[in-house]
Amino acid sequence: MALAEQTVIITGANTGLGYSCAKNIAAENKSWHVILACRDSKKADEAVRNLIVETGNPNIYFLPLDLSSFDSVKAFSSKYIQSNYPPLKGLVCNAGIAGEDEVVFTKDGIESTFQVNCLSHFLLIQLLFKKLIPPARILMVSSELHRNNGSMKAFLPNYTNAQELAYPNKENSNIKGSGQIRYSTSKLCMLFYTHKINDLFHEKGINNITINAFNPGLMPDTGLGGLNRKLFQKFFLKYILPIFVKGALSTPQRSGKLLAQLIISDKFNGMSGKYFDREKEIAPSDESFDKNKIADLWNTSIKITKIENEI
């Protein structure tokens, strides 16, 4: 008997981890309709063509999404809602940027790393939540760089308050390593969101929609690996970093397959509010459960994105 058709949306799925995740889901069976939510239409169209050939699944589509623009997030959500796709069963918040040290603001006037990695994914979840048809799953791509007790001091997150992350003082922020700090802090924020949304599910008796966070590991093959290219070239990532961070390295192919399993595998039925370091469930940092910081991020996110009805 054929499985019922279902849809998954993956942000940033035209390359790297997102592409691999899309490929593995699409190849699992033809019941999955996979939507690549990407900014670059040329690269996304090419990715769609390649994925159809590689998986034999014709149900792969592209919808434009620029996470540096709230208007684009709203337009994407509106277009999806008005379309006739099968029930939405998965949402993978994967896309992200690791900016340079110089602060860059989006056209919405917000620091770009925080908007792209955090606020726009928050807005996307809020706008599409009612379209998720249980059982359904939300995945947040985080990182081990979210920890504030690591040995690599230059990478540690620095969560002060969300208002300051959104609107930093440009003159005081353009210091060496600040781009990496903003990236690490954004990955901590993804865990804040995960814990808050999971708590809301419990409060509202929602037990058939789950949310989990995922660490894909450092992936030098992507040319970024979540790290500033100017500071860390491939040689350092491949040969030096493993000495300090055991088991840190991965590939988009390996981690994408594992990320896909968090969407499609029965093994994860009912699991929510968890943090997975690739295939293993592990404890996130104590800081990621900080109720004051979670409340600050959540309330500020609502204020900035102007969401009227939260989950």
Short description:
The protein is an alpha/beta fold and 311 residues long. Helix content is 42%, strand content 15%. Strand 7 and strand 8 (280-282) form a beta hairpin.
Could you describe the 3D structure shown?
This protein is of the alpha/beta class and 311 residues long. The chain has a single domain (6-305), classed as Rossmann fold (3-Layer(aba) Sandwich). The protein is 42% helix and 15% strand. It has an 8-stranded mixed beta sheet with strand order 3-2-1-4-5-6-7-8, with helices on both faces. Strand 2 (32-38), helix 2 and strand 3 form a beta-alpha-beta unit. Helix 1 (16-28) packs parallel to helix 2 (41-55). The longest helix is centred in the middle third of the chain and has 26 residues, at 178-203. The two termini are 35 Å apart. 46% of the residues are buried. The model is unreliable at 223-229 and 231-236 (pLDDT under 50).
Structural class designation:
alpha/beta
Indicate the CATH class: Alpha Beta
CATH homology superfamily: NAD(P)-binding Rossmann-like Domain
- Unreliable sequence segments: 223-229, 231-236
Q: Indicate the CATH topology.
A: Rossmann fold
Number of separate domains: 1
Write the H/E string, N to C: EHEHEHEHEHHHEHHEEH
Give the fraction of residues assigned to helices.
40-55%
CATH architecture: 3-Layer(aba) Sandwich
Strand arrangement, major sheet? 3-2-1-4-5-6-7-8
